[in-house]
Design goal:
Blueprint lengths: L1 E4 L8 E2 L8 E12 L6 E5 L4 E5 L5 E12 L2 H10 L1 E6 L5 E6 L9 E8 L3 E7 L4 E4 L2 E8 L4 E6 L3 E5 L4 E6 L3 E5 L4 E6 L3 E5 L4 E5 L7 E5 L4 E5 L5 E7 L4 E5 L4 E6 L3 E6 L5 E6 L4 E5 L8
Parallel strand pairs: 4-8, 4-10, 5-9, 5-11, 10-12, 11-13, 12-14, 13-15, 14-16, 15-17, 16-18, 17-19, 18-20, 19-21, 20-26, 21-27, 22-26, 23-27
Antiparallel strand pairs: 1-3, 2-3, 3-6, 6-9, 7-8, 22-25, 24-25
Length: about 300
Amino acid sequence: MFTRIACLGLVTCLSLLAGCSSAIKASQTQTVVASHVDHAPLLVDNRNGAVSVTADAAATSVHVTAEITCTGLTFAEAQERLGATILSVERAADQTLVVKPVFAGGARGNDSASITITIPNARGAMITTSNGSIDAKGLVGTLTLASSNGRVQVERHNGDVSIDTSNGRIELVAISGTVRAETSNGRINGADLGGPVTARSSNGGITIALSLAQRGPMHLHTSNGAIDATVGPGFAGRVAFDTSNGRVSVHDAANRVSIREIDKNDGWIVVGEDASSSQVETSNGRITFTIASAPAPGA
């Protein structure tokens, strides 16, 4: 069951830069309340706007709100298109909840939607937007996120995560599964990561901290920026380092490194006894690799 609460109000008119084919904007908020299917997948297909999805165990239904903007050559045309544009929230045959804006006459270049979703739970999600940030909190299963221009943040995710953004930083906190994160221009930060990690940035530093029990491996690559990697007492394996402009530092307070072959800006170590192989590389920046000790009992 779906309940649509359309147009909570206000339509605005804004002038854009000269030379744009559609010079006027009209905006409104649309809200859809949908019945929930326990642990069903979620698919969000957006354009030119942010997407935020939060799993809230106290919620009993799905609430989807979108700030939708349509363009036109005149204010009347923008309003007319806005009135015929809908926030589509539908169930697919496999019970996937599909959320997307449907723009009247097809989307134009400056049409946009910023979408906020609160859902009791979702097992598996795919979220895409052509230009905007993505936030996902508290979901379960395989999570696939893609933005062509925007920040991506994931918190408290139980499952694997795959992220692509062409221009924006990536923030990861408390992920239980495998992480693959790639941005062409931005930092990558991760904390309490419970699975193998692959992180790549063409222009930005990388800071990654595995959960204490995580064994690895990790593959961290940036063409311009420092890399800081912290692993816990569960980590093991061979780690190779390489930077063309910076120093490699290994901090081993727990004395777990059994083999160390480190020059100023490259080399490798072996931590514990494991056949896995990790790689940490930057073409311009320092590398710091820290092996943390187990916390004291009761700490």
